[in-house]
């Protein structure tokens, strides 16, 4: 790893140590410092590099194994897993991928292709099944987005809540299980679009049209509004990767 943060062994917050070690190692794997199939250094060497105990290092690798980044093999040791085995909707993995530089076209494409499959269908179901309370919460979330903007932490949190509420309003347990990952994908895509410059387009009207369709209990309009919102958001994200050339 390029950076090594050392921790005092008497630090009482072991969960912080485990989490930070997992964060450092996870970022290194996602950034390509450890390629798939590569065996990690020995437990003793890795713990020494991070300045933590061997038991803390084992806990960090256990965390990353649970996320699909690592696999333990007999007589081989701990190996970086194939990328296809990574839990790509894990909020930590998404964060590490968007924090890696540069963000590649494939990541944006893959996430939006998944969202295009899931979210319009979820919007259609939400239009049929949403409760008055869920609609009220969506309306409140959109109000925060409009007031605080998506350039603020409060606006980003409200945007994540808005998309999560739609998945919850489907009443479908499998859709609901995707809420955390889809919400994280929406959050990081927005952060990425806004990191170098202001958002190229105000996305609030797109969200309002989606909310209006769900409020009207119109599944077709809700699916169309969700698809349009995502297509425009993907265009904005791709522009953030390759901004159009400025002509004199």
TrEMBL record:
Keywords: DNA-binding, Transcription, Transcription regulation
Originating organism: Asticcacaulis biprosthecium C19
GO terms of molecular function: DNA binding; DNA-binding transcription factor activity
SMART domains: FCD, HTH_GNTR
Domain HTH gntR-type: 15-83
UniProt xrefs under Gene3D superfamilies: GntR ligand-binding domain-like, Winged helix-like DNA-binding domain superfamily/Winged helix DNA-binding domain
Domain of life: Bacteria
Keyword Metal-binding: no
Protein name per its UniProtKB record: Galactonate operon transcriptional repressor
């Amino acid at each position: 790893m390029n950076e090594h943060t050392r921790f005092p062994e008497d630090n009482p917050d072991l969960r912080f140590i485990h989490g930070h070690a997992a964060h450092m190692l996870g970022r290194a794997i996602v950034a390509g410092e450890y390629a798939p199939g590569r065996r990690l250094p020995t437990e003793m060497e890795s713990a020494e590099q991070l300045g933590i105990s061997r038991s803390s290092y084992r806990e960090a690798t256990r965390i990353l194994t649970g996320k699909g980044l690592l696999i333990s093999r007999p007589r081989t040791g701990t190996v970086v897993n194939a990328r296809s085995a990574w839990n790509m909707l894990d909020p930590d993995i998404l964060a590490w991928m968007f924090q890696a530089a540069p963000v590649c076209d494939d990541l944006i494409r893959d996430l939006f292709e998944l969202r295009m499959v899931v979210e319009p269908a979820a919007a259609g179901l939400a239009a049929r099944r949403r409760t008055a309370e869920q609609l009220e919460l969506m309306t409140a979330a959109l109000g925060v987005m409009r007031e605080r903007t998506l350039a603020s932490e409060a606006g980003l949190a409200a945007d994540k809540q808005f998309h999560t509420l739609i998945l919850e309003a489907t009443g479908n347990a499998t859709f609901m299980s995707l809420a955390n990952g889809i919400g994280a994908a929406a959050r990081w895509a927005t952060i990425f679009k806004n990191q170098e410059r202001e958002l190229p387009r105000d996305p609030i009207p797109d969200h309002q049209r989606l909310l209006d369709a769900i409020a009207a209990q119109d599944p077709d309009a809700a699916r169309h509004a969700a698809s349009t919102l995502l297509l425009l958001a993907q265009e904005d994200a791709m522009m953030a990767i390759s901004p159009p050339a400025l002509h004199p």
